[in-house]
Amino acid sequence: MSVFAAEEVFNQSNMKDLQWKRLKGTIERVYANVPFYKEAFKEHHIHPNDIQTWDDIKRLPFTQKNHLRENYPYNMIATPVEEVVRLHGSSGTSGKPTVVAYTKNDIVNWADLIARAIYMAGGRKGDILHNAYGYGLFTGGLGLHHGSERLGCVTVPVSGGNTERQITLIQDFKPRVICGTPSYILNIGETMLKMGLDPTATSLKYAILGAEPWSEEMRTTIEQLFDMKAMDIYGLSEVMGPGVAMECEECQDGLHIADDHFYTEVINPDTLEAVPDGEDGELVFTSLTKEALPIIRYRTGDIASLTRGKCKCGRTTTKMSRVKGRIDDMLIIRGVNVFPSEIERCILQIEEIMPHYQIHLSKKGVMDQATLHVEVNETFFNTLLEKNLEHPNAVKIARKIESALKTQALVSMEVCLEGPSSIPRSEGKAKRIVDNRKTLV
Ligand code: DLL
Question: Which CATH class is domain 330-435?
Answer without folding.
Answer: alpha beta
